[in-house]
Write a structure and sequence with these properties.
Monomer. (2R)-3-phosphoglycerate binds at residues 41, 122, 155. It catalyses: (2R)-3-phosphoglycerate + ATP = (2R)-3-phospho-glyceroyl phosphate + ADP. One of its GO terms (molecular function) is ADP binding. It is a single chain. The protein has 401 residues and is α/β, with parallel strands linked by helices. The protein contains 15 helices and 17 strands. Strands 3-4-2-1-5-6 form a six-stranded parallel sheet. Strand 15 (317-321), helix 12 (334-348) and strand 16 (352-355) form a beta-alpha-beta unit. Helix 9 packs across helix 10 (248-261). Adenosine monophosphate binds next to strand 14.
């Protein structure tokens, strides 16, 4: 993917007095009383907005919230205004719509450095359909476009892709830029040795990632529920562990591919097994080669943690996607926590550590280690697609640097 022009490339002359349409991801969780329960996404959007304010732009913010079907008051962005205003240090104005005359008037009334938040862009079904007429209406509000919504960059929607056709320049925000620097840049040109750790429940959802990373890494560590499909493919007893019977041949071929490419592929040598899928299940550690009947593997064992850690000690770049076990149950979280701790420790020694979205991000945050990593992706689906080597429509639409 070509390097994209960034908002940081735009200076005062490009920005002063200009109306800037900024697609951000403010899709934060709200409780029943519309209190924000996690403001991470709002905080992540701040650097780009402040940069534009500081250079005298009129900032028009667009986001979705939830999955509304038409205008749904429950999914209004209004509850976000106080927190956004507090973080930006200005009184953010709120529009009742995202297109139309009223919105145009509010944009016209914005002072340089002012911020207007448009109402949920998904109140229009045209947004997700990437309707060109709707995209044109959104674009007509502004002079230029900044996309900082990495979490929706894998979707070709009107506000993430369509508007870019009508606004020049169209550039990446700082958050988007950082995601691309790490998930594309660091992965394409890693400091070697380069290791990938892939876990999660099923091999079927990670095939693309594993195949793409096999072409780049020196070490591939596999854990999580998917490991049992690999064990079974090698003829081991897996008890009642999660297995994808239709993916046994694929597992064998991935093992062969790794060998042919000279990638050191590590599977756990021991497993924590449980007598049922529950937080209070009885558990014990057994060798990976023989899981007893009636038991299911829910985490990697202590010997695996040791082997994985030693192997990671030799690396300069690590990318991690997917937990090592059912970390939602305290009893089966040790493997995932150990990997999180190891990566935090190695980050401190100058190793580039990238947490590639989804449940591994939740695990790192739960362990309180988020600020230790080089990069934590804010997008689940988007980061997975990037790691699979796919092009994201929301990124492709931006101008090249
Ligand atoms: P994914 O979304 O594919 O990254 O998978 C994350 C989910 O995998 C988490 O909810 C984990 O609980 C689950 N998982 C991890 N290890 C296992 C396992 N051994 N058996 C069943 N589920 C697992």
């Amino acid at each position: 993917m070509a390097t994209k022009k960034s908002v940081g490339d735009l200076k005062e002359a490009d920005l002063k007095g200009k109306k800037v349409f900024v697609r951000v991801d403010l899709n934060v969780p709200l409780d029943d009383n519309f209190n924000i329960t996690d403001d991470t996404r709002i905080r992540a959007a701040v650097p780009t907005i402040k940069y534009l304010m500081g250079h005298g732009s009129k900032v028009i913010l667009s986001s979705h919230l939830g999955r509304p079907k038409g205008v749904t008051p429950k999914y209004s962005l209004k509850p976000l205004v106080p927190r956004l205003s507090e973080l930006l240090g200005v009184e953010v104005k709120m529009a009742n719509d995202c297109i139309g005359e009223e919105v145009e008037k509010m944009v016209a009334a914005l002072p340089d450095g002012g911020v207007l938040l448009l109402e949920n862009v998904r109140f229009y079904k045209e947004e997700e359909k990437n309707d060109p007429e709707f995209a044109k209406k959104l674009a007509s509000l502004a002079d230029l476009y900044v996309n900082d919504a990495f979490g929706t960059a894998h979707r070709a929607h009107a506000s993430t892709e369509g508007v870019a056709k009508y606004l020049k320049p169209s550039v990446a925000g700082f958050l988007m830029q950082k995601e691309l620097d790490y998930l594309v840049g660091a992965v394409a040109n890693p400091k070697k040795p380069f290791a990938a750790i892939v876990g999660g429940s099923k091999v079927s959802t990670k095939i693309g990632v594993i195949e793409s990373l096999l072409a780049k890494v020196d070490i591939l560590i596999l854990g999580g529920g998917m490991m049992f499909t690999f064990y079974k493919a090698q003829g081991h007893a897996v008890g009642s562990s999660l297995v994808e019977e239709d993916k046994l041949d694929l597992a064998t071929s991935l093992l062969e591919k790794a060998k042919a490419k000279g990638v050191s592929l590590l599977l756990p040598t021991d497993v924590v097994v449980a007598d049922k899928f529950a937080a209070d299940a009885n558990s014990k550690v057994v060798p990976a080669s023989g899981i007893p009947d009636g038991w299911m593997g829910l985490d990697i064992g202590p010997d695996s943690i040791k082997t994985f850690s030693e192997s990671l000690d030799t690396t300069q770049t690590i990318i991690w996607n997917g937990p090592m076990g059912v970390f939602e149950f305290e009893k089966f979280a040790a493997g995932t926590e150990a990997v999180a701790k190891k990566l935090a420790e190695l980050s401190g020694k100058g190793v580039t550590t990238i947490i590639g979205g989804g449940d591994s991000v939740a695990a790192v945050e739960k362990a309180g280690l988020a600020d230790k990593m080089s990069h934590i992706s804010t997008g689940g689906g988007a980061s997975l697609e990037l790691l699979e080597g796919k092009q994201l429509p929301g990124v492709l639409a931006l101008n090249d640097a």
